[in-house]
Amino acid sequence: MTNVTDSFVFLGHRPSAGSFGFNTDILATNLINLSVVIGVLIFFGKGVLSDLLDNRKQRILNTIRNSEELREKAIEQLEKARARLRKVEMEADQFRVNGYSEIEREKMNLINSTYKTLEQLENYKNETIHFEQQRAINQVRQRVFQQALQGALGTLNSCLNNELHLRTINSNIGMFGAMKEITD
């Protein structure tokens, strides 16, 4: 441990003016080091820094130009919007002056049109109800007719034998033939 401490003490020793050694005075060495680093940065970084600043300057100028163009366009649009607003306000004044009677007339037309439409809808509803009633009645009639016909056929088939069946068919054919001659 004493060797390490001795070496630090030895580093703290200042050599005489004619010899070479380490300067361990932190304040004096930092100033020298900082001035060397700053000098090197200025010498080598001058071009890079000036390029960076020129690029930044161009971007700022382009942004300013674009902002000016946008401002001019916004001013034009604002003037157009103000002109449209004045025109709309004048039209609104005309509507206020002349519009109340037109509104009342349109209101009456709308009421009359709505009333007529309601009447037509009521008529359509009644026609639909009547149509559905007739359709239901016809369906019931068809079912009753089919059931009666099935019942009659069942009765005839159970009561008729082949010979009676053939005579009935011939008799009906004869009646249909006579009816056809009468209608012709």
UniProtKB/TrEMBL annotation:
One of its GO terms (molecular function) is proton transmembrane transporter activity. It comes from the Eukaryota. Residues 57-98 form a coiled coil. The chain crosses the membrane at residues 26-49. The keyword Transmembrane applies. InterPro entries: ATP_synth_b/b'su_bac/chlpt. Keywords: ATP synthesis, CF(0), Coiled coil, Hydrogen ion transport, Ion transport, Membrane, Plastid, Transmembrane, Transmembrane helix, Transport. It is a single-pass membrane protein. Pfam families: ATP-synt_B (PF00430). It is found in: Membrane. GO terms for cellular component: proton-transporting ATP synthase complex. Its main location: membrane. The keyword Plastid applies. One of its GO terms (biological process) is proton motive force-driven ATP synthesis. Belongs to the ATPase B chain family. F(1)F(0) ATP synthase produces ATP from ADP in the presence of a proton or sodium gradient. F-type ATPases consist of two structural domains, F(1) containing the extramembraneous catalytic core and F(0) containing the membrane proton channel, linked together by a central stalk and a peripheral stalk. During catalysis, ATP synthesis in the catalytic domain of F(1) is coupled via a rotary mechanism of the central stalk subunits to proton translocation. This is ATP synthase CF0 subunit I. It comes from Calandrinia eremaea.
